[in-house]
Amino acid sequence: MSSTNAHRSELGEFLRARRGELSPRQVGLPETGAVRRVPGLRREEVAQLAMISTDYYTRLEQGRMQASAQVLNTIARVLQLNDDQRDYLFELAGKDTARPRRRARQKVQPPLQRLLDELVTVPAIVMGRRQEVLAWNPLASALLTDFSRIPANKRNYIRMVFTDPATRTLYDDWETVARTCVAHLRMEAADSPDDPQLTALVGELSVQDDQFRQWWGAHHVASRGMGTKTMHHPVVGDLTLDWNALTSATDPGQQLITWTAEAGSPSHDGLRILASWSAQHRQAAHDPVD
């Protein structure tokens, strides 16, 4: 047997052994209660979580397919491999084992922060590459959620859309909002296919939400530009707002997202009422208690 064939055979055995060590519960899949003929995950379950076809994964295990580094990274995440196991997987597959470098955490650009501070009647946030919420103004918190209560490493718009029940009821057409977020994230994945933080975010949401997993697998892409959203706000009622994304010239990975309404419209009046309500609540929070 040639060394290439030997490596492919070992690769299949290695993958079978690793999936045999995991239960559906460990990767976020529901337990059906049915007796399994063999322990661990089935091939189709690994393929489902890795967003590839069962046939593709089967041929990979059987040594009849060469996988890309991106697919290997995803399989390593699904099988919860440690660094040494991941390196071994790449060696068997004949791929460079160099690990993707983690990007430094983005910080809001000072000009965008100053602009946020000046926007007192317009809800606005600064969004990063992976839809991280890097900064926000008080009216955005009043409109969307209190971002300060979310840990910085979890402060992510698409995570909020899929995992926060209040956000699901906020949007009149939640599905379109969610699908658009997935398409935006897909576009970023195309630009940064080896970004480990993005891969981890996709893995997290794929395990937690069936719709995310389905829409991510559809491979639709879109750039962030402008649109209109209708919201059912618990304080001021229904709002129909135009949103716009302005890209930072100094860091194209940051965008200022604003929500506005036509002057004189009921939604414009609603934003003004919400701004007043927000200011009163902030003042009350800072007033000394007798």
From TrEMBL:
CDD domains: HTH_XRE (cd00093). Signal peptide: none annotated. SMART domains: HTH_XRE. Coiled coil: none annotated. InterPro entries: Cro/C1-type_HTH (IPR001387), Lambda_DNA-bd_dom_sf (IPR010982), MLTR_LBD (IPR041413). Residues 40-86 form the HTH cro/C1-type domain. PANTHER family: BLL4672 PROTEIN, BLL4672 PROTEIN-RELATED. This is Helix-turn-helix domain-containing protein.
